[in-house]
# Entry
Amino acid sequence: MASKNVLLGISGGIAAYKTYTLIRLFVKNGYNVKVITTKNALNFVNELTLRTLSNNRVCSDMFSFVGDVSTEHIALSEWADVFVVAPATANIIGKYANAIADDMLSTCLLACNKQIFFAPAMNTNMYNNKGVQENLQTLKKRGIQIIEPNNGELACGTVGQGRMAEAEEIFDRLEVFFSTKQDLEGKTFLITAGPTVEQIDSVRFISNNSSGRMGYALAQEIIDRGGVVNLVSGPVSIDILPNRNLHLIKVTSAKEMYEMALKYFENSDVAICSAAVADYTPKTPYNGKMKKKQESVTIELEPTKDILKTLAKNKGNRILVGFALETDNEIENAKKKLLTKNLDFIVLNSLNDKGAGFEYTTNKVTLIDKQDIVALPLKSKTQVAKDIIDKTLTFL
Ligand code: CTP
# Structure
């Protein structure tokens, strides 16, 4: 861990005293630490102690370094592997949520494009204040990780939520962040996921049972390992936590999915098409609600475009992974798709396996490339996602 750089932002609250222990923990475990404080923070902790513990000068003022470079806020943000604000007061949370930069800490935060953690600390009523909670939601949506405050006795004497997480808890969160393999850093993935919905008229549609879970598990695995994901998703009822490396593009029809997949394929290193794309769509959707008739009706369907096949035509050096959902002659059919769609490998899902398929959180797949066929046991979709990404890496 010796090469990891932690930028610690301290804002003005009594919990600032815990940062002495936090800095010691980081330094003892081989991290480099630089500290930025707000002016108010220096009422609770002092510059000399912070400097001595971190073994680096402390930055509190935008303009205090005579003869220094004028873009210290940029240099510090670039130096950091991670930026932790502890304690995060209601004030700094509000400023950052609203992109205000009026001191060194808030300016550095805006200049930082690394992972940011906030460890809020404040009185329970302040913490529960609607405005503060909305600001925290805004931060979460932007991919900031919030290290939730604990319940307990607060400095003001009240008991409730608002006590900053202990130094050890903050340190552990950072250790988990750094210990996850970041082997996909610098790689961009396109993932298609979920079903598509093809309108028959304004209220009726043709779709399928795809839950999107496999595609979302893939996206999560890639983000966790430092990759960037453009997730083109049909309508699903699952969530994925916002992350600065995740771009969620919601689509409805096969046509929309086709257009978005092509758009994001251009800048991708890898495309994994896990979506259950409708093969047919109504030729002329009815404008409005079709009225009931006594006789039978025929809806003319026309084929949709094959996204994967189109991507394969412009493959270049990119890695292309497909899925095959089969019921008969599984291996043979999947191999056919591997070749006709010009894929690096294909993930075969069998509907004949118990616990595998659309509605389950588990899956049983076979990974097939031009050389090998590897049948994996029943696993969680998260674990299957790991296996698929590990296999993808062998082609990169
Ligand atoms: N696929 C796609 N665009 C389509 C249809 C399928 O990108 N219009 C992709 C799927 O995301 C999957 C792979 O092609 O990765 C195979 O999909 P599947 O439904 O198993 O096969 P099809 O090609 O549709 O053939 P069939 O339905 O006859 O099995």
Q: What stands out?
A: Residues 192, 254, 273, 275, 277, 279, 304, 306-308, 322-325, 337 surround cytidine-5'-triphosphate (CB under 6 Å). Residues 167-179 form the longest helix (13 residues). The mean pLDDT is 93.
